[in-house]
Amino acid sequence: MTDAHHGTAPTVFLKGHGTENDFVIIPDPDGRLDLSAAQAARLCDRRAGIGGDGLLRVVRSAAHPEAAALADRAEWFMDYRNSDGSIAEMCGNGVRVFARYLQRAGLAGAGDLAVATRAGIREVHIAKDGHDGTGGEITVDMGPATLPGGDVTVIVGARTWPAVNVNMGNPHAVAFVDDLDDAGALLRAPGVAPAETYPTGTNVEFVVDRGPRHVAMRVHERGSGETRSCGTGACAVMVAAARRDGLDPARTGHPVTYTVDLPGGRLVVTERTDGRIEMTGPAVIVAEGVIEPALLGAEPAP
Ligand SMILES: N[C@@H](CCC[C@H](N)C(=O)O)C(=O)O
């Protein structure tokens, strides 16, 4: 039961986005809102709820069982949910928006900030306001990519493409295509073979070249459908493109930067010589309000 159910305190939400990957933000510093998958999905519903590709619950690490061990290194835990209510390990655009919320709430300043996620701690740098009305850019150390190898195929209808299996804390299948329209309407999740490569499902990226170290992509996200941007996806795409282009900073001793265009905006992704991936992009809060208790609703008895 939440405070909202008892009518003692309203449940506040904010709405934000990073390159139009949009999120319902629920400040819950003391971890009192034990949001179910159904409640998260209702909040993300674009017709009957607030609407979002995902949900970011802002909880003190010390107040969350999955993050308490990280509390001495990161005060805040990003409890991320996809729009269908499922839990994901990591969200790259989400962690920038999460940091922007903390800054707006006076819980963090411009500069460096550590955020706990299910994929571990992510170091975030909030740039001073660029005076463009959006609060300036935010850079996240997304950690190293893992490329487990093996042949993966992405399937949409009768079409298939070879894909690269990349893990950014969450799973990705990156397919290079001739034209972004080749993936069709993406109303359903693309198939992947062998399916066992991704026991918990996967995000799928479709990529074309735009120029030297410049790509464009579409993404179908696990648990959310096609979205206008995906930060972990952009990082997975950058690494897959770099390896395809024969670039590996750990071997050459030179960092590599790719510009990644998405339907909702642009992300800049750099792979450092230590193998860590840095992603830079915008993060904007657009609204704040109060959730009607009926939207959270009473959960059916088990
Ligand atoms: N949009 C996110 C990724 C969110 C999680 C993903 N749908 C999954 O299930 O792994 C991003 O910006 O990285």
UniProtKB/TrEMBL annotation:
Residues with site note (Could be important to modulate the pK values of the two catalytic cysteine residues): 172, 221
Keyword terms: Amino-acid biosynthesis, Cytoplasm, Isomerase, Lysine biosynthesis
Pfam hit, one: DAP_epimerase
GO molecular function, one term: diaminopimelate epimerase activity
Residues annotated for substrate binding in this entry: 21, 82, 92-93, 170, 203, 221-222, 231-232
Pathway(s) of this molecule: Amino-acid biosynthesis; L-lysine biosynthesis via DAP pathway; DL-2,6-diaminopimelate from LL-2,6-diaminopimelate: step 1/1
Stored PROSITE patterns: DAP_EPIMERASE
Subunit details: Homodimer.
PANTHER family the record matches: DIAMINOPIMELATE EPIMERASE, DIAMINOPIMELATE EPIMERASE, CHLOROPLASTIC
Protein name (record): Diaminopimelate epimerase
Organism of this sequence: Actinacidiphila epipremni
Taxonomic path: Bacteria, Bacillati, Actinomycetota, Actinomycetes, Kitasatosporales
